[in-house]
Amino acid sequence: MEKISILWALVRRDYALQYAGSFLGISWMFLQNLVLISLYALVFLVLNLKNPSTQEDFTAYLLTGLLYWIPIQELLVRGTGILTDNRSLLKRSSLGIDLFLWIPYVQFLIHSLVTSIPVFIYLAYSGKLNLSGILLGYLILVFSGLYLMLLLHYLSRLNILLKDISPLIRLVSQLIFWGIPVLYYPTGYLKEWNRLNPFTIPLDIFRTSVIPGYTPQFDWIQVLPFLFFFFLVYLLAKRKFQSVILDHL
């Protein structure tokens, strides 16, 4: 319980530092997410960029894809830089590196929950939400964050060694975004390319949970090689990087 209270204090401190001087404070982050989802929905739905399903089906498909991806992207970018941003505090405290790594994950849980509320309300009002799958859908988001955390143990440490790889990670996050079927249906060669993206299967499972009548597009067992690889990367970070990182702080 003591570590949880310390972690929550660190989360609040991180929010305060991120949004210090901002007129809307932390509300700006939630507003930004909703505006981003609304803009994508406006462009793709108004311009009628859908294939091969109906307008109604594509609305749920698009919104659930964005709801899944936006918090994951925030976790990827924020998690990579969290140790570097707290370098001075890490030097002065004995809290350990791992506790700081959970800061962006807790924020990810908060952002996912808050962002999902208006999206789920809209989908439920439109009759495009599996009400019994809401809890399962959020649990899939929770486990998707843990899945990414395996990789972030490595990337956050690498960020210290290489000074700052945040610009590269932002670029990579855009490539990942267009490499998963968030804004389009996976077909043909593009579907084969999607199979190489580690977040395609979790997104497919998420959609299956929350969209009524949704047919899975991929074989879910294909996520196992990615999970195994991420776990190996996690072990590498814990065993090989730990002492080196402490020297570079």
TrEMBL record:
Keyword Transmembrane helix found: yes
Keyword Membrane: yes
UniProt KW keywords: Membrane, Transmembrane, Transmembrane helix, Transport
Stretches that traverse the bilayer: 21-46, 58-78, 99-125, 131-155, 167-185, 220-237
Family, as annotated: Belongs to the ABC-2 integral membrane protein family.
Protein name in the entry: ABC transporter permease
Origin species: Leptospira vanthielii
